Amino acid sequence: MSTATSKTPAQIGRFAIQRALGAGAEGTVYLATDTRLGRPVALKTLARRDPATVAANLDEARIIGRLSHPHIVTLYDAGEDGALRYLVFEYVEGRTLAALIREHGRLEVGRAVEIAIALAQGVAYAHEHGIVHRDLKPANVMITPEGVARLMDFGIAQRGAAAAADPAALVGTPAYMAPEYIRERRYPPASDVYALGVVLYEMLTGTTPAAGGAAREVLRRTLEDEFAPPSRHNSVIDEHLDNLVMKALAKNPAERYAGAAELAGALRSYLDPEGESTPASQGTLEYLLRRIRHKGDFPALSATITAVNRAVSSDREPVSVLCASILRDVALTSRLLKIVNASALGQFGGSISTVSRAISILGFDAVRNVSMSLILFEHMHSRTNAAALKDQVVAIYFSGLLARELHGHADLRDAEQAFVCAMFHRLGKLLATFYLQDEAQMIERTRQTRGWDEARAARDVLGISYEELGVGVGKAWNFPAEIIDSMRTVSGAVGRCPSQHNEKLRLVASMANELADVVQSADAATRSRQLAALAARYSEATGITEKALTAAVRSSADTMMRDADTLGAGVARNGFLREARGWREPARTAAAAAAGATGDETVQQVAQTQLLLPDAALDEQAAGAPADTTRLPEPGRRQAALAAGVQEITNTLVGDHSLNDILRIILETMYRAIGFHRVLLFVADARQQALRCRFGFGPDVESIVQRGVAVPLAGARDLFYAAAVLGNDLCIEDMQGEKVRSHVPDWYRKSIGARGMVLLPIVNRKRTLGLIYADSESPEILRFSAEELGLLRTLRNQALLAMRQA
């Protein structure tokens, strides 16, 4: 806000003007005295506008004047003095938050969070009364001498009539505009939550997430770029606060906090985690879900699991959505590729280096299910309180292996589906142990001292059973019905084999978990008795004998040892796995001992010999690249990864395949091998004489596809014409270069607008079938060796071959 330079009037209405406080595009603010009530006020004149807009402002002001909240500057009055319209606010001494940030830069973390809580509380109060701010920014926040944050101009920024009259108009400051407002001119309450996230980001870092460049560039970054977490600018910020801020800044309003009140609660819990109310005072399920969202240990887990499950019902091609969901998690990608490259899959020809190829070989459901189990294991096993959970997590994974071994006895078609259902059978107990540690220990003490079963003890302590807790979380995470049904406990005698598929899954999941209990707790003296009892209970329904149960344990123990390194450090030495290894056939155990190998060494040997990719392959930055490439210099690594992709596609082309599978593998190979920001496939649309974006990889691909971005084939003679029509391969490091700038089309600047790009047209006998587009903000990424360029062209030629075969 700049100092006013125009002549200050002596009086406006009944208000005697003392001095100008500042001026801006919306009008001038004066310190004035209410001559009727004798109190100081801040009087703001409204800039000249059409009568309808001014009338709407004044009508809205009368509604806002009813708001009364300690963190909102009160609007006293609205009036007219001749042609001049004005608003009268409570006068608050202090300085704006914008001035505070300009002077001090970023604020101390605790202070920034406290201010954000106050603002969120004020916004939540206004939302409850049906009022949206629409112009949240530090310049509209006053900080009193006592340090209290007060939000100004509440609701005054809503120019509803102006926006309706001019759909192209954007009102407000670009850095604080939510994506939905920029793109669709919508400003729901969730847009205020976004703006609160930007203000908190700025307080923590001294800058806004999309800062830099002209207003148009800021708007583009808001729509398309992935924001850097605040910890990139301020190393004091921890992962927990990073997660809270980035959730508020989600580009999809549905992925943000449900409201400003929820954001305030999350920030309060961050400042005072011990001050959270206990489950006894509220619904335990809601409490647990809130802890999962806010605590910082599980946000990636819940978000990734929900995204993976959402792929099933996606309006887009589910395979593309699943691929994108997995690739966002580099560690998950690495572990998934290492699992699918186990020796059992060797018959498919060479190692598998892309998620797309894994899906084409194993099928959509198998990759989804394996991914979900790996997500659960990774996030539960590697957290700070993992010591108390290791046996439980390993037992859960082992239950999945058992179910996979036993699924055929129950006439189940899908082994991997049985695997995941068994793993999530006791999700409620696992989450309670992780998040409600004190309550979980109390449940166990209650069970032991009173002789109750676990469900009764859980209801006594939590008001809800573990089963009900797991089912509730499963629904919140968008789990499919068969997994949710499998969480329900099987009690009492089990009769004949059910006809329903979901019920068969539930039986196998329950039996596998009970068998894991026997492995974990039974000694050699009681093992046979407990096995016999378990077989007797389920035999009529499943036909599974005691011998089959023992064989399943032995086989699962071998598999667990093979996967130990992939699943994480310490699994090979875990107590549960030692118990499971004790079930192996005596001859095999003796042979290992005779060879002079310790139990752990045997595990390592089995893990190394049964994986096509050795342990060195787990380079999380390479995200599943073959082992011999991870230690190469960057150019060598890129070339080796491209070569592996070419070989993989060659293997796929000679067998049964779909066109989409081939094209997706080609794009993913380029995306991961080179490190492009995004890779897109444009295919010919004869009706529109254009190449339309069909799918790809990168942070905003879904938005680009949904917006129907297309390359015109009859347009101006620009860069895209040279590639798509004339058939030239192009690589441009800087689109703003003097010789290039004039040849970049406006549609591209508005819809994508990367700094540098690669264009590889797919042309058959002078007819353009498609175009592979890749981009990067880093010129170094786009500098290729002759070998790399040749391999990129080979991949393009493989796309052409696949299209011609189709």
Count of helical stretches: 34
- Contiguous runs where pLDDT drops below 50 for at least 5 residues: 1-5, 157-168, 276-282, 295-302, 343-349, 380-385, 586-633
* Strand count: 15
Shape: flat
Query: What is Rg?
Result: 31 Å
Q: Helical proportion?
A: 40-55%
Descriptive account of the structure:
The chain has 806 residues and is of the alpha+beta class. It is built from 34 helices and 15 strands. The protein has a 6-stranded antiparallel β-sheet, with helices on one face. A 6-stranded antiparallel β-sheet has the order 12-11-10-15-14-13. A 3-stranded antiparallel β-sheet has the order 7-8-9. α11 packs antiparallel against α15 and α15 (364-381) runs parallel beside α17. The radius of gyration is 31 Å and the shape is flat. 45% of the residues are buried. Mean pLDDT is 76; it is low at 1-5, 157-168, 276-282, 295-302, 343-349, 380-385 and 586-633.
